[in-house]
């Protein structure tokens, strides 16, 4: 699914929003998530997964073309961990609701 398809999906699920409004909602969501990660915050979307920033240490690497050693600087990288429920649904397994009604 592309960002444009996501905007169309939001617009179709919420008929009170025009397409431009749905696009604004999706863009605002992604901007907020990006800013949170840039600040080093953790994002948790229950039932979907969590995203955090991991520190990668400096290391020695190799140029794949020449085989020469090169130094790779330390850096931060986004890391996504999928939720158990989503992993099971993608795998085609039935997911029991966490809080079943009595």
Characterise this structure.
The protein has 102 residues and is of the alpha+beta class. It is 37% helix and 26% strand. Helix 1 packs across helix 2.
Features:
102 residues, alpha+beta, two-stranded antiparallel ribbon, extended
Write a compact overview of the structure shown.
The protein is α+β, with helices and mostly antiparallel strands and 102 residues long.
Strand order of the largest sheet: 1-2-5
What structural class is derived from the secondary structure elements? alpha+beta
User: Over the alpha carbons, how many angstroms does the gyration radius reach?
Assistant: 20 Å
Secondary structure: helix percent = 25-40%
Residue ranges: pLDDT <50 for 5 or more in a row? none
Order of helices and strands: HHEEEEEH
Number of helices, where a helix is a run of at least 4 consecutive DSSP H or I residues: 3
Form type: extended
Overall number of strands: 5
The biggest beta sheet is recorded as: 3 strands, antiparallel
> How is the quaternary structure best described?
single chain
Please indicate the percent range of residues in DSSP E strands (runs of 2 or more).
25-35%
Average pLDDT number: 91
Task: Report how far apart the termini are.
Answer: 36 Å
